[in-house]
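pasting for ref
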Amino acid sequence: MKKQLFSLLLTLISISVFAQNEKPKEEKKWFETISVRGYSQIRYNGLLVTNPDLGCEQCDKSWGGDNGFFMRRMRVILYGQISPRVYVYIQPDFASSASSTGLHFGQIRDAYFDLGLDKENEFRLRVGQSKVPYGFENMQSSQNRPPLDRNDALNSAVSNERDLGVFFYWAPAAKRKLFSSLVKDGLKGSGDYGVFGLGIYNGQTANKPEANENRHAVARLSYPFEFKNQIIELGIQGYKGLYTFSSSQLSSGVKINDDKTYADDRVAASLIVYPKPFGIQAEYNIGRGPEFDNATDSISTQNLKGGYATVSYKLDYKNQTFIPFVRLQKYDGGKKHELDARSYNVEEKEFGIEWQPSKSFELVVMYTMSERRYEDYVKQDNLQKGNLMRIQAQINF
């Protein structure tokens, strides 16, 4: 018995000495938690063009004319959870256009940090320049979206989808995990913008200085859930603010308010059925905002409306993915970020297919049939109709 007690005592002493000599685990330094990824998109829109005068400033400046190959995006993203409650995301784009003749300039798209307000980071504050939580397709990365450009109706709300502000997001841990998987599993998710989002931002759109004392306010409620084999997400969102024009946005003869400031309010509804394998993505918004009126040669506050519907099918075959899709869209309203709050009436049909032979490469071939009336003080009675085939190669790294 004494020998057993003596042996046990020696064992405990050995364990104690080993524990004292063991070095404490060092925490990673912040720069050791940063990851790098990115993607590049190269397009060609010059096939089967029926009207070289048909253009789309908002979606792709290489439509029509004498344009050839076009670098739509070239992005390198730095991101990481640098501490348990602080997440950093920085995304510059090196394919920005400084002018109609100057291409491939670097410009900040995203630069923000998330501050977790609880241990699980279910409650977060996002501070910096980031996407405004208005519209599923606006928040859906162009890296994931099958159609080459965002729809006119909701994308006209926020140029480049981003602005500088502070946003609050909340989602239970299980929903945050689901948001992440919808992107990771190739189901074309929008990313994690919470089940509920609320924010204030400048309202002049990304990389533009604030021009009035008013701040835009936005709110969004979106809930994904599983129904049999499908995953469905329902959403509603809205924003309200005042938008002020700069002199560079106005023609010399256009009439405008003394303070160059107009109401800018919208609400939208979203329905997403993720492609498992059949998918539907549909959104519609109504509101009011500045719009050019060719009857009075002036910019006035007018009603706007429009939306889109995209139908897709995800087919996995021999380690490759094929996603055929069709999209219909309509928009009747102004675009505040274009010259003279250009007035639009858009009807467009698109169909195409996305091919993913690997995670690193995607090819999209799409045919667009477009009818666009877009008018400002310089271009009036401007109705353009036409078709074109569009091709995009995308590299993911």
